[in-house]
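ok so I'm stuck.
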Amino acid sequence: QKEKMIGLLTQWNAHPESLGSKNKLLTADFPYATVAALKAKYSCPLVYMTGAVGGLLTPASPTPNPSGGEPLHDGSFEFAEAYGKAVAALAGKAVAAAEPVAFTPLRVETRRITLPVVNTLYRVASGMGVLPRDAFVWTGDRNKRGEPLGKDNAKAIMAIETEVGCLRFGDVALAAIPGEIYSELVYGQFQEPADPGADYPDAPLEPSVAALVPSKHWLLIGLANDETGYLIPKRQWDSKPPYAYGRTSSQYGEMNSCGPDSAAHIMAAFKDCADALR
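replied:
not stuck anymore, here's the structure
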């Protein structure tokens, strides 16, 4: 008797922005095509989740045209559908190559921590109510939440509270990272030496998810429970001139990050979670 699939979890590492920067429509972007194709093939409930998308990981453009015509470029629904179906095809190959693993017992470890917010734009947006989340005074210790940030202590360093987690389902581990993590922090493959234009070229390297995760089989979920912006290796941080890689302006990721120490705090908290499950 053929076994029936009861559910499928699909994770892919790309921003769902295949419709391009000028799109003003609210859509599910390419994941819609991915989910539709997999549901049609496997006839089971399906969840699509985003993995590591730090470092501007976006859909590859151009992508092959399934009809055999000219390659498709981002900015169109045709491209979004073709790319989404290509992701579904890769997921199908993974399912076909899957091997049985023990999925029990279930154990969960989480750490609630605070992150210092030194990004001026984030702080202004918070004060204007554009980023409506609780703000606290940074204590200098990620494990100690400070008093609420208000008019009386407005000049203090701002901090936000977030959560890092690690789940273990028998032989499988899941890293729950609350932000857009750079791939270097996932696999531990950093540029050596750092570009001399970087702001902190001698900063110690953060531990990687691959080195910390307590299982041979693992999965990373980005934006897990929260969005704290880009998580960038401090050695690569580049917001002040002279800029790295010959650029004439600062990097995009730094403008969308709480600060250069966010990655270190997140990875230290993840290490605590992973060690507790080891």
